[in-house]
């Protein structure tokens, strides 16, 4: 079979021939139809990820058709259209992954290939309203956003809450936006791109600001509280989802409403600094670290996507052989939505 292999750190991906796969007990082989990139893949290529073992076939996200089943797997799975949960061995504690937890695509070979082998427990029926490319875009970023928004920050379905999502345009942030809007929240966003802010409003965001402005948080509060200026003095957002960290994290505590919940799962802008403890404790803020999610959350996310007929935002679809071009686009931050590789 054909596969995209990362031979060494800081080297381009190579399209290679590797042996076809055979499933072990309780495993299935999936003929991949589409696979999607995550920042994790680029970080592995650049050596910015722990315990890298090379060469490896990257790729965590994928959708396709079950090609072969191992011992203990009902043959009824053969030929089914499926999507993969890339989180392997979460464990029995829903609050925290086990020490054996790992993500498909390193150290285990991943989805940037014509075939991948995974445990049956990580295989789910593909939502029927999604194409293979759309379904492949969903797993890792969608699950990360779902856990942050629904499990950790506990977005309420009993009342309309105000949600802020930073850095909209990336995969997880866009999913958080779509989930929050579908759940009935009033959603605001930040981005460094006018195009991405406009796209967010098309997806249901009420408004947004450019975080490249020095006082973006003040601009945001002014825009969001035009009908009730008094809220600008105490904070406005009940739930905040962040994937950047860095010095601007302190501004999130300023715009947070009393008793707000802040969930974050990234640190692309560096260390969190300048947070005033008094702001956190006088506002009774809750701050949650989060990443990925457990098996039950993956199933809940898929059910929510099907119920609301949500469609992931796909930036572009390229053939497998052009995978390095997709890596370059992600590394440059040019994408709006998920970058997908077609493996058909």
UniProtKB/TrEMBL annotation:
SMART domains: PKS_ER. Pfam families: ADH_N, ADH_zinc_N. GO terms for molecular function: oxidoreductase activity. It comes from the Bacteria. Residues 8-341 form the Enoyl reductase (ER) domain. This is Zinc-binding dehydrogenase.
């Amino acid at each position: 079979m054909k596969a995209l292999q990362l031979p060494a750190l800081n080297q381009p991906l190579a399209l290679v021939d590797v042996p076809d796969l055979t499933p072990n007990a309780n495993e299935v082989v999936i003929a991949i139809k589409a696979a999607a990139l995550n920042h994790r893949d680029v970080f592995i290529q650049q050596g910015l990820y722990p315990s890298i073992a090379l060469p490896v076939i990257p790729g965590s996200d994928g959708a396709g058709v079950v090609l072969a089943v191992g011992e203990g797997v009902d043959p009824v799975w053969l030929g089914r259209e499926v999507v993969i949960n890339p989180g392997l061995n979460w464990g029995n504690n829903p609050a925290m992954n086990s020490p054996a937890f790992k993500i498909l695509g390193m150290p285990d070979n991943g989805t940037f290939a014509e075939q991948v082998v995974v445990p049956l427990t990580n295989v789910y029926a593909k939502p029927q309203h999604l194409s293979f490319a759309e379904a492949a875009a969903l797993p890792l970023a969608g699950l990360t956003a779902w856990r942050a928004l629904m499990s950790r920050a506990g977005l309420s379905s009993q009342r309309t809450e105000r949600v802020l999502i930073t850095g909209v345009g990336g995969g997880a942030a866009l999913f958080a936006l779509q989930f929050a809007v579908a759940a009935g929240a009033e959603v605001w966003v930040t981005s460094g791109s006018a195009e991405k802010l406009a796209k967010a409003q098309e997806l249901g965001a009420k408004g947004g600001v450019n975080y490249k402005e020095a006082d973006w948080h003040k601009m945001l509060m002014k825009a969001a509280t035009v009908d009730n200026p008094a809220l600008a003095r105490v904070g406005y957002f009940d739930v905040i989802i962040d994937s950047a960290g860095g010095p601007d994290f302190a501004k999130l505590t300023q715009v947070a409403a009393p008793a707000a919940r802040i969930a974050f799962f990234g640190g692309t802008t560096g260390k969190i600094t300048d947070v005033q403890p008094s702001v956190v404790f006088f506002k009774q803020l809750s701050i949650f670290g989060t990443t990925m999610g457990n098996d039950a959350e993956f199933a809940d996310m898929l059910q929510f996507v099907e119920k609301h007929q949500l469609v992931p935002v796909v930036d572009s679809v390229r053939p497998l052989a052009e995978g390095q071009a997709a890596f370059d686009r992600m590394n440059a931050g040019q994408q709006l939505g998920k970058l997908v590789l077609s493996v058909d």
